[in-house]
Amino acid sequence: MQQQLCSCHSLVQERIQRRWTNCETERPQRRPPSSLAGVLRLLLLILCLPTRTHAFVFKVGVVGPWSCDPLFGKAMPGAAAQLAVDRINMDASLSLGSTFEYVLLEEDCHTSVALQGFLDYYRRASAFVGPTNPGYCDAAALLARSWNKALFSWACVGHEQDEARGHSTFARTLPPPTRALLVFLRHFRWAHLGVVSSAEEGWVETGRQVASALRSHGLPVGLVTSVGPDPASLRHALARIKRAEHLRLVILCMHSVLIGGETQKRFLETAYDMQLTDGSLVFVPYDTLLYSLPYHDTHYPALQNSSKLRRAYDAVLTITLESHGPSFYQAYQQAIEHGELPITSNPISSVLLVAHALKAVQDSGAWLTGENLARHSRSLAFPSFTQRIRTNGSGARLLDYTVLDTDGQSCALHPTHRIDVEAGMVRYLNRPIHFPHGHPPKTDSSCWFTHGKICTGGVDSFFVLSIFLSVFLLVLVLMGISYFIRRRISQIRMVRGPNKILLTLADVTFINPSLSNKKLSTDDSKDSDTGRRPSDPDHSLKSPYSASSLSPATHENSNVAIYEVRGRGRVGLWSMQIPLADLQDLLQNEDVKLDWMFKSSLLLDLIKGMKYLHHRYLCHGRLKSRNCVVDGRFVLKVTDYSYNEVLEAQRFPYVQPPPEQLLWMAPELLRVSYPGLSGSLPGDVYSFSIIMQEVVIRGPPFCMLGLSAEELIQKLQKPPPLCRPVVSPDYAPPECIQLMKQCWSEQPEKRPPFEEIFDQFKNVNKGKKTNIIDSMLRMLEQYSSNLEELIRERTEELEIEKQKTEKLLTQMLPPSVAEALKVGCTVEPEYFEGVTLYFSDVVGFTTISANSEPIEVVDLLNDLYTLFDAIIGNHDVYKVETIGDAYMVASGLPVPNGDRHAAEISNMALDILSAVGTFKMRHMPDVPVRIRIGLHTGPCVAGVVGLTMPRYCLFGDTVNTASRMESTGMPYRIHVSDSTVKILLDLKEGYKVQLRGRTELKGRGMEETYWLIGKEGFTKPLPLPPELKPGQKAHGLQVEEIAQYKRRKAELASRRN
């Protein structure tokens, strides 16, 4: 009414404005009296002020699965809602001044269909009570908000709907059931839960929502599953429950067995059979949280009639709404007498809550909107059907829950605890819970119920960390002790035993005793700028390598050894005579041919020698290609190592090496004050990488850069950019080049040690030995292997070509015929008693060909037959041949298949006809391609005809008749003979045929023929046959369609020009 007054006001104001505009146009000098206009506007403004509406109908829609779920239907929602509406209309305290009505709105048991149905309820109600399926609660709340209509729910689980900003028109008529569950679980300290729902989609969604709500509070819900009524499904779900670890409680989202839930009854009885009701688990029905279940002097027939269920129900704790009044109990007794079972009073309470919220909106003088209606449902108190309804300031209903238990023997339910949701407490009612065997399930750690605390299942994380650190420190200590013990044993072995390396004078035999007994002269001491006498004890060798250990010349890839006679001031060096040359000379000699095998052999010898030195903590310090010598057996040996330690210990003056001698030195050693005086283990790795570059490309260091030695040293000392050799991948394997780049890394700690280099280099050579003699033998073996590999490759190529030829032959002829021809046998003609033949051609093909280029005709047939070939691969048929636009297929030969030949050909014909309905020509996409199909069943003879280009051909009257069936057919039709129809009907596979009538077949006279129009279970679309005018031929359609296409194409071309 208020909106009508406002619209009337706008209309009147528009007319007044138009009238004054006309008056001003006619008499521009005269203006209306301002007092009169002001009075009119004031009156209209008063009319548009918000006023209460009288004489309107407020209709509440009660949403639920009243038809698809029988147990919900037994709740008598219509009677409950009518009772609530009658009380509202007769209650003088409400004085709504309007008629309050209800309407039952059906909710489908499938979530998607239920949501679709809810979309249609926009105009059927002013507010809604429901839905009962939590699966679409959020969507329904959003829809109600967009409609600006209030939604009062008593079954929604998710906490998202409680956000006033996103769901301003949503209100609850019951507190969320999961809140009562949390209080209950916290009291008994049962945290590890499982959720089992029945197979109905509404209950499955309920189970998921309950699990999600409990997980949002930090509880470990490990098992969420659904069960059907069949024993296999029940046992499978219970087996999963039995395997689950630490499970304490299982929530059953299904109809309670006490009100007729058959799935819960079978579930509990099966759990009893599987010994899961022994007290280790507690089962809690979820649906009883949504209504008040009677328990005062009440015996349920389900428990009375089954002793097994009664014993199994001892493991069940039933939580239900507490009812303080007798009204619902009396109604329950009356319903039992009349054979009906009112499950819940929720519709009554919900409708009453809507009415009182409506009264609060009218009393406040606010507009009647869904948002105001939901907001004014807070802070209410009024009597209901069974109890007094109270809501707090946030709209949550204040209710208590009762925990009911049985003793496993009787059928009565006894209250043991009361759950105060508002206070978050569980109160004991002086009756203990009777657990099977007297023992409740184990309790969990209280941290699961502590907000903001991460729970580890009761284990102290600090204790676990302390244990881990203690074990780690103990392992480190043991490793340190082991290291020092091994080091001490190594030191003892250096001075004792047959393998000692710390020599005395008695252990050494000198070739020239005069040189060995010669003391260092005073002049030498002066040249060293020390001023000390040679006999000074501090004048002996100071190097940590040679002072504590010396290297014997026993390794095949080392060539020098250093020794010291302690206390004598004498130092000795020896080396072996190498009959050949150093590595640098060998690389520069172009007469010596070195392939990768020889190069890898030399590099591996170098790696072995350096690995031996580094293993004994000896640093070379001067490694270059000049210090690597090659003997007559082509074995590389490392020489001139540890010279720097000798010179430094004897205080010889430092001499700056020339730049050409520093190209092998590591960059970090070039940046010190005296480059070349000292070395390091990573520095030896860098020097090895430069030698590796020399060996790989057979050229001096950095030869590819074209810079002088002085310029190279400056670039190495002062990067960036980094200056390194550039080696092409053609010179060595990629792994070798990658290893070389790792060894010349700018950061010493990133260079691999020689043990790792040795392992990587062996992988480069695939673990093969690189001995020269072995290499020569391996070359001979490789030649033999290459020849065998070449023969094998040629054999494989021949086999592949043979397979291609055989495949081509089997595509032209049946496999059995092809095998007979390959072995040179004669293929005798074969008689087949029953086969079904398929013929098809393109309607109007001559007209299409006349209006197309030859290449376009070829493309058309190729595309069409490629489509057909792909379809026949899915059926037991054999493609005989294609002649022009004719396509011939047979089934039942060359391999007989009983009576299946008619079914296979018919299925194939339906698939081909469906595919042709969407087929398009490339050059004329708007012109449809129509085919005629003919099928006939009968005997025939098959044989191979010809030698030069043999063909597998069919002969007999069956072939002619099948061709006549095709030629007398119609576009987009499958023409079937009487013999084929008889076999199809005998198969009883649901083939649909339509009588065409008597048709004249050339050579056979008049016969009754049929149209094959489909099959049961065949869902592919079939093209509609065109309607032919009297006297019109099928190919005439193609002429008209091609002409229309050409006209459209010409018009389009003219528009573009």
Would you kindly provide a written description of the structure presented here, covering whatever features stand out?
Helices cover 42% and strands 16% of the residues. The chain is α/β, with parallel strands linked by helices. The strands form seven sheets. Strands 21, 22, 23, 24, 25, 26, 27 and 28 form an eight-stranded mixed beta sheet that branches. The chain has a five-stranded parallel beta sheet with strand order 2-1-3-4-5, sandwiched between helices. The protein has a four-stranded parallel beta sheet with strand order 7-6-8-9, sandwiched between helices. β13 (400-405) and β14 (414-420) form a beta hairpin. The two termini are 63 Å apart. 33% of the residues are buried. Residues 1-36, 42-54, 338-343, 510-553 and 561-570 have low confidence and may be disordered. Residues 520-541 have a biased composition (Basic and acidic residues).
Search tags:
alpha/beta, five-stranded parallel β-sheet, eight-stranded mixed β-sheet, 35 helices, 28 strands, disordered N terminus, single chain, 42% helix, 1057 residues
